[in-house]
């Protein structure tokens, strides 16, 4: 019986190894071992089948990787293996001696036979699985046993590895990689030796590697997958270590290893070009580019050389694309569009080197090799996306390239610089500046790289010209709109290029005519279609028109110089049929403005109107929805993946995912992905959202995703410990202006209209979002509110727009605002916690100021903390607790706000000017609070306001926004705020209505009460300043009002809006004036031991300001007149002789302040009882002072005259008597004729005073006439013309009546100029021209004989003609137009009257100087009148002597 047969019979029981092991475990004695050894040899001599013996030998799991072994079993196996190997070696030597062969040859033959036996089992199974490249699990166990036995033979010197490989390869079969791996692993035959000794190793090793990579182990064979990875790793490690070892002696072998690795790399790159999806064999080989895997068998230096070599080979593989191809196809090679396999390869190759080293190597490759531009540009995109430092390094590289270009006029470097810059720009503004920015920065100024010489300029322009046939249109537009800097003398060179570029654009059907009016050209992608660009132009033009009220100059210029585009593109987009709203919107108003300017052809406009009518009839509720939901679903998945990466991913993966998200957003918002958003403001529609439903869904997804990411990230770390994911997330928005605009509009809607519905999580997420958005937008981008909320169309910063959205006028709105602002400021502090200067970009000052206003108002403890200066310490610990307080759902907003208020970083910010809430800003906020919906009760509000005014801002230094202890400063701020609030109510009325409150019911009365308290305190203490010096409060109050009025009306301003503004200012001031003590406005002076009254400031105020705002002109309101008179009486009691002081002051009023006198006379019937009662209270029943009593006497006299009774004329001023007569005439209803007769009895020709009275009365009559002309509701003054005729009849013989129409020659009648406004004074001349032609011929004949009549008439006519040409003449109203002539008719009649008069006048009617003056004035305005003056009145023209020379 042979050994083989015996083994087959007992193999189901125990093997030889196990039997031997069993003996060893019993610890035999030395003599027992020797006996056993001899017995075994005898047994072997009887059973001499070596194959069966070697099959039986060895451990079934020699590597210990299939079954765990304890220490005892391992020691047992080692002993048994040593004995088995010794026995087998002895037997091999014995049989080799018998056969006469070497032991090595016999052992190789035995091993190979066993190896063949094992592998034949695999070959037999190839019919079932042709593609199997690795052994099965059972085969692997047998092979391990064989390898263990072979290793024992090798240790006994019975096996020759070189002979083993020689015989193995002589079998003409391809070696199996797993067999090679085990030979290498068991140190029998290394892979390095195989590579060095096998000349044909390349022919079989590379195909085997490809086959193994392309083979997928059957499902469930996890062990096989691990072996596959281990085999590949081992082979790659050996090849890298051998091929890239700098100390290698055999250069040929190194090159061989490099070539095999190159073959595999090229196979990988070929696969990348044909297969886009993962899961291929190429992806498995790509895993081999792992430093941790290769580094086991290769040194660090070899690994560095291998990665650098592989990168070079990748960049230079198949360089079949030319530069022109790269220019045309570059837009398709962005990171988002590139193969993931290719970008993954670049990521792995870039791991071992720094960004600067990689870009330096890239530059070296570009200078020394022909490159594959697709691979080069994709590699650059991968670096920019995954490494933040790549942007700066690329800028430095571009700068070096351009410098080198223009030093040696190297065209290759210039081409490279342009391609690299464009590739960076294609990745979006969050990754690299736009192409237009880079081009302007490099070539747009006099310090550009090309600006040193004409040769450099020619070189650049020739390069750009050579690019024209291959350039995408967007780059040509950049070069046209932002051309390189060219000196004026070389301008023709640039124009040649511009002409060539425009021709190319025309060939591409993207001519300059199709470029938008407001097109923000970018080099980031394909241009918009002309229709889309025209639509954007229309939107921008309408926005500008709505904000300015004028058609923009760009549109007007386009209608002339770019007429084809204007007519075919712009107007077509503007006049797109739609359902017109009932109330005209901004678009309709813009169309009407263009129509009035004759910029829209009549036929086109008619067609538009008809189409809109049809649209309304066909569909009154059309809704346009976007049914394409694919981008939405893709975006949803991408955002979910990004949310997962925020917690578990690295920066590179997040950047890559954001790049994909940006690409998807570019599909949803079809615009350029790299717009120059810094040049135009983002439109913010405060009325309604103009976004489509799809866009709103996308924006909501973006905001929800950000909130979720923040919550997930905050569970693990506070903001200062997180990655930069939030900043990069928000940065994606800046690649698309339309998207950014939609996001900002959505944020406005959420904060302004839906704030109360937002949860704490929403507010925290949105607050963080706003912080990062503000950090980006604070640098250059502005927001244009449409329609403007604040006066004027000027754009505002994002922070200011956000502040306007967060209205703090009701309790509900305050709570929303304080919660959002607390969250935002907490996040900003915790995000950048190093220095306050670094926090400025991350803490919007508008939100910080909101907290400075709201926290002390809503949290009373904060007021005490502010006074005590309570600030917390331990910055780092407080940051953690601060963030915990904002994220803890159990905390209330009050606790969080209180925690924030005490934080040191919060207090440090208040030291910076931009974070200080000045007193005027506090007042503006407080004045907008609705009292009925305030969070504070009336008493609480009073307490808070008194604390803010007297304890906080009064003592706060001026440089910190306070009053510096100056009560006057505090009072001035209160007064200005009260008046400003009234003026600004109209501009914010709409905004307030949107949030459900009206403009009434604000805290205006409360602040007015605070002003009253301060004024009373200042008056009682006589301390207007903080230093104790006495200053008159009267002067201070009038000075404040004077400054406001002066700023409202300038000397050159006479527009209607300015006049209305002044009237509004005075009206608001009058409301304040009536709330203050009347005596404040009369100064009481002590001179020489006597106390006197000084009304100079009051007189100045009435003459300069009240006079200009009276309505009707020439008459103060009754309550204002009464207040001034009460002040006079009250102030007089401080004097020793009150009555005398009143008389002294009032006796001067007819000259110093005639308006107050006339107004007092007019309202005397209402004022007399009031003043009499007041005076009796003040003076214990005394009668009114004589001068005031004289007012009653004048009234009685005027009334008696009207009744035909002859009373003695009171000893009053002429103006006072005239005003009394005027009041009496206005009071008589049906007795006008008797009153007129009574006037004639005054006989002005006999009494100078009566003449003055009638002249003053004539002035008041003309003023009534003008009032009736301008204000038709003044029906009681329609008989002014009759009174004028009566007065003129009595005064016709005197020239005094002409003086009221001569502003510079009035003499005693000078007070009339201080009764009415300056505009009304100029219109007095109009009344002259209007009334005189309506008089009878007889009366006119008397009038024209007055001295100076002709001069006065001509001056009046010329002045009125100037008013007429300027459009300032009054126009008759509709209801009275039948009775009154048009201004043109009046001017015509007046001119004819003057021409007739001049022809009848003698030459002595005018002096020589008067004639020359009139001729010069008429020369330009009315040459005919000037000629008449010269012909009829010039003595030289009438002389018979004629000068022929």
Explained architecture:
This protein has 1445 residues and is an all-alpha fold. Helix content is 65%, strand content 1%. The chain has 69 helices and four strands. The strands form two sheets. The chain has a two-stranded parallel ribbon with strand order 1-2. α53 (1118-1132) runs parallel beside α57 (1164-1178). The chain is elongated, with a radius of gyration of 50 Å. It starts with a helix and ends in a 7-residue tail after the last helix.
Give the topology, please.
Blueprint: H1 3-10, H2 16-25, H3 30-46, H4 50-56, H5 71-99, H6 103-124, H7 137-155, H8 161-169, H9 177-185, H10 191-197, H11 201-214, H12 222-243, H13 251-274, H14 281-286, H15 291-294, H16 300-315, H17 323-329, H18 340-350, H19 355-368, H20 373-386, H21 390-408, H22 411-426, H23 435-443, H24 454-467, H25 473-481, H26 491-507, H27 530-548, H28 553-561, H29 563-574, H30 586-596, H31 602-618, H32 630-648, H33 651-668, E1 682-685, H34 693-716, H35 725-731, H36 737-753, H37 760-777, E2 783-786, H38 798-805, H39 811-831, H40 836-839, H41 845-858, H42 861-868, H43 875-887, H44 893-901, H45 904-909, H46 919-927, H47 938-953, H48 967-994, H49 1004-1021, H50 1033-1048, H51 1056-1075, E3 1083-1087, E4 1090-1094, H52 1096-1109, H53 1118-1132, H54 1138-1146, H55 1149-1152, H56 1154-1162, H57 1164-1178, H58 1186-1202, H59 1214-1227, H60 1232-1240, H61 1248-1270, H62 1280-1291, H63 1318-1331, H64 1337-1344, H65 1349-1366, H66 1383-1400, H67 1408-1421, H68 1423-1433, H69 1435-1438
Helix pairs in contact: 2-5, 4-6, 5-7, 6-7, 6-8, 11-13, 12-13, 18-20, 19-21, 20-22, 21-22, 24-26, 25-26, 27-29, 27-30, 28-29, 32-33, 32-34, 34-36, 34-37, 35-37, 36-38, 37-39, 38-41, 39-41, 39-43, 39-44, 46-48, 48-49, 48-50, 48-51, 50-51, 50-52, 51-52, 53-54, 53-57, 56-59, 58-59, 59-61, 61-62, ...
């Amino acid at each position: 019986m042979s050994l083989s047969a015996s083994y087959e019979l007992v193999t189901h029981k125990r093997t030889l190894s196990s039997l031997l092991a069993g003996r060893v475990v019993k610890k035999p004695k030395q003599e027992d071992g020797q006996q056993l050894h001899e017995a075994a040899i005898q047994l072997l001599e009887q059973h001499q089948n070596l194959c069966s013996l070697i099959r039986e030998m060895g451990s079934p799991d020699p590597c210990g990787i299939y079954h765990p072994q304890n220490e005892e079993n391992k020691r047992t196996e080692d002993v048994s293996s040593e004995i088995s190997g010794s026995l087998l070696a002895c037997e091999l030597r014995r049989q080799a001696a018998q056969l006469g062969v070497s032991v090595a040859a016999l052992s190789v033959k035995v091993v190979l036979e066993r190896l063949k036996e094992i592998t034949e089992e695999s070959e037999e199974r190839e019919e079932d699985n042709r593609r199997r490249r690795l052994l099965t699990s059972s085969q692997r166990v047998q092979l391990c046993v064989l390898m263990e036995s072979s290793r024992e033979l090798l240790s006994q010197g019975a096996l020759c590895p070189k002979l083993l490989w020689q015989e193995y390869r002589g079998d003409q079969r391809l070696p199996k990689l797993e067999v090679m791996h085990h030979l290498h692993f068991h140190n029998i035959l290394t892979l390095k030796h195989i590579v060095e000794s096998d000349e044909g190793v390349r022919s079989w090793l590379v195909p085997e590697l490809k086959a193994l990579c392309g083979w997928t182990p059957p499902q469930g064979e996890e062990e096989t997958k691990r072996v596959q990875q281990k085999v590949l790793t081992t082979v790659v490690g050996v090849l890298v270590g051998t091929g890239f070892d700098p100390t290698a002696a055999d250069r040929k072998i190194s090159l061989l290893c490099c070539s095999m690795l190159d073959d595999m790399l090229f196979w990988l790159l070929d696969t990348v070009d044909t297969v886009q999806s993962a899961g291929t064999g190429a992806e498995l080989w790509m895993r081999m580019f792992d430093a941790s895997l290769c580094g086991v068998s290769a040194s660090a230096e070899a690994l560095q050389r291998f990665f650098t070599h592989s990168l070079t080979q990748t960049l230079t593989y198949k360089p079949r694309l030319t530069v022109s191809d790269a220019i045309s196809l570059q837009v398709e090679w962005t990171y988002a569009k590139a193969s993931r396999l290719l970008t993954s390869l670049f990521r792995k190759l870039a791991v071992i080197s720094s960004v600067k080293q990689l870009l330096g190597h890239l530059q070296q490759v570009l200078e020394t090799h022909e490159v594959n531009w697709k691979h080069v540009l994709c590699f650059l995109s991968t670096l920019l996306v995954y490494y933040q430092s790549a942007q700066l390094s690329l800028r430095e590289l571009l700068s070096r390239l351009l410098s080198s270009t223009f030093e040696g006029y190297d065209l290759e470097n210039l081409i490279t610089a342009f391609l690299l810059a464009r590739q960076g720009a294609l990745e979006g503004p969050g990754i690299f500046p736009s192409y237009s920015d880079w081009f302007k920065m490099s070539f747009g100024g006099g310090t550009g790289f090309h600006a040193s010489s004409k040769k450099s300029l020619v070189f650049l322009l020739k390069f750009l010209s050579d690019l024209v046939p291959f350039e995408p249109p967007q780059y040509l537009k950049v070069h046209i709109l932002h051309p390189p800097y060219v000196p004026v003398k070389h301008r023709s060179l640039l124009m040649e290029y511009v002409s060539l570029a425009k021709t190319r654009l025309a060939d591409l059907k993207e001519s300059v005519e199709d470029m938008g009016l407001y097109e923000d050209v970018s080099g980031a992608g394909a241009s918009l279609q002309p229709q889309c660009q025209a639509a954007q132009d229309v939107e921008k033009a309408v926005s500008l028109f709505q904000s300015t009220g004028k058609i923009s100059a760009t549109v007007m210029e386009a209608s002339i110089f770019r007429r084809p585009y204007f007519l075919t593109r712009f107007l077509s987009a503007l006049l797109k049929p739609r359902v017109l709203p009932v109330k005209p919107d901004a678009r309709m108003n813009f169309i009407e403005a263009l129509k009035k300017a004759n910029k829209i052809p009549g036929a086109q406009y008619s067609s538009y109107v008809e189409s809109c009518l049809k649209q309304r009839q066909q569909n009154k509720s059309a809704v346009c929805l976007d049914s394409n939901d694919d981008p939405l679903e893709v975006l949803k998945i991408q955002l979910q993946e990004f949310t997962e990466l925020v917690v578990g991913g690295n920066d590179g993966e997040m950047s890559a995912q954001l790049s994909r998200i940006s690409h998807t957003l570019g599909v949803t918002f079809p615009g350029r992905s790299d717009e120059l958003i810094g040049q135009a403001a983002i439109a913010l529609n405060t009325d309604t959202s103009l976004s489509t439903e799809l866009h709103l869904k996308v924006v909501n997804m973006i905001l929800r995703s950000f909130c979720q990411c923040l919550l997930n990230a905050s569970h693990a770390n506070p903001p200062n410990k997180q990655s930069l994911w939030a900043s990069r997330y928000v940065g994606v928005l800046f690649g698309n202006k339309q998207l950014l605009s939609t996001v900002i509009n959505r944020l406005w809607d959420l904060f302004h209209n839906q704030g109360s519905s937002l949860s704490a999580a929403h507010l925290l997420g949105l607050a963080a979002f706003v912080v990062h958005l503000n950090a980006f937008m604070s640098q250059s981008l502005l927001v244009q509110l449409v329609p403007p909320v604040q006066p004027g169309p000027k754009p505002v910063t994002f922070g200011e727009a956000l502040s306007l959205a967060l209205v703090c006028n009701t309790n509900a709105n305050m709570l929303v605002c304080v919660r959002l602002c607390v969250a935002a400021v907490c996040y900003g502090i915790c995000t950048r916690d190093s220095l306050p200067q670094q926090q400025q970009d991350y803490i919007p000052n508008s939100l910080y100021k909101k907290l400075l206003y709201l926290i002390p108002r809503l949290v009373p403890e904060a007021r005490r903390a502010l006074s005590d200066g309570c600030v917390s310490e331990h910055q780092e610990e407080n940051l953690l607790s601060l963030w915990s307080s904002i994220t803890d759902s159990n905390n209330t907003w009050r606790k969080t706000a209180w925690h924030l208020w005490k934080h040191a970083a919060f207090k440090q910010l208040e030291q910076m000017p931009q974070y200080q809430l000045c007193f005027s800003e506090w007042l503006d906020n407080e004045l907008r609070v609705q009292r009925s919906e305030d969070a504070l009760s009336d008493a609480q509000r009073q307490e808070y306001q008194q604390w803010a005014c007297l304890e906080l801002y009064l003592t706060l230094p001026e440089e910190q926004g306070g009053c510096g202890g100056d009560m006057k400063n505090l009072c001035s701020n209160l007064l200005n705020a009260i008046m400003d609030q009234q003026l600004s109510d109209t501009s914010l009325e709409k905004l307030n209505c949107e949030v459900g409150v009206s403009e009434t019911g604000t805290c205006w009365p409360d602040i007015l009460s605070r002003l009253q308290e301060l004024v009373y305190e200042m008056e009682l203490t006589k301390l207007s300043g903080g230093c104790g010096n006495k200053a008159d409060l009267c002067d201070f109050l009038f000075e404040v009002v004077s400054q406001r009025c002066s700023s409202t009306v300038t000397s050159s301003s006479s527009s209607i809006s300015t006049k209305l503004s002044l009237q509004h200012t005075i009206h608001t001031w009058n409301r304040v004036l009536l709330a203050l003590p009347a005596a404040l406005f009369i100064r009481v002076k002590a001179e020489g031991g006597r106390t006197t009254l000084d009304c100079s400031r009051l007189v100045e105020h009435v003459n300069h300001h009240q006079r200009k705002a009276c309505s009707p002109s020439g008459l103060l309101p009754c309550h204002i007149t009464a207040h001034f008179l009460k002040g006079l009486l009250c102030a007089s009691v401080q004097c020793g002789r009150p009555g005398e002081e009143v008389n002294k002051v009032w006796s001067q009023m007819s000259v110093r302040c005639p308006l107050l006198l006339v107004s007092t006379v007019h309202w005397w019937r209402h004022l007399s009882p009031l003043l009499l009662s007041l005076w009796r209270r003040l003076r214990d029943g005394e009668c009114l002072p004589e001068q005031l009593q004289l007012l009653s006497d004048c009234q009685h006299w005027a009334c008696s005259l009207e009744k035909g009774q002859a009373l003695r004329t009171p000893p009053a001023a002429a103006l006072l008597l005239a005003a009394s007569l005027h009041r009496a005439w206005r009071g008589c209803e049906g007795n006008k004729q008797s009153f007129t007769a009574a006037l004639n009895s005054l006989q002005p020709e006999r009494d100078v005073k009566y003449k003055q009275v009638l002249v003053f009365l004539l002035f008041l009559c003309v003023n009534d006439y003008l009032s009736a002309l301008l204000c038709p509701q003044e029906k009681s003054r329609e008989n002014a013309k009759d009174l004028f005729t009566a007065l003129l009849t009595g005064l016709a013989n005197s020239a005094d009546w002409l003086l009221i129409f001569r502003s510079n020659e009035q003499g005693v009648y000078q007070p009339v100029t201080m009764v009415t406004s300056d505009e009304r004074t100029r219109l007095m001349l109009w009344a002259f021209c209007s009334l005189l032609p309506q008089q009878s011929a007889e009366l006119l004949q008397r009038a024209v004989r007055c001295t100076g009549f002709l001069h006065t008439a001509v001056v009046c006519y010329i002045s009125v003609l100037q008013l007429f040409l300027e459009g300032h003449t009054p126009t008759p109203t509709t209801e009275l137009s039948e009775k009154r002539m048009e201004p043109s008719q009046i001017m015509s009649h007046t001119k004819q009257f003057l021409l007739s008069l001049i022809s009848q006048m003698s030459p002595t009617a005018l002096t020589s100087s008067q004639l020359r003056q009139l001729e010069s004035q008429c020369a330009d305005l009315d040459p005919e009148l000037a000629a008449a003056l010269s012909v009829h009145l010039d003595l030289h023209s009438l002389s018979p002597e004629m000068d022929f020379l």
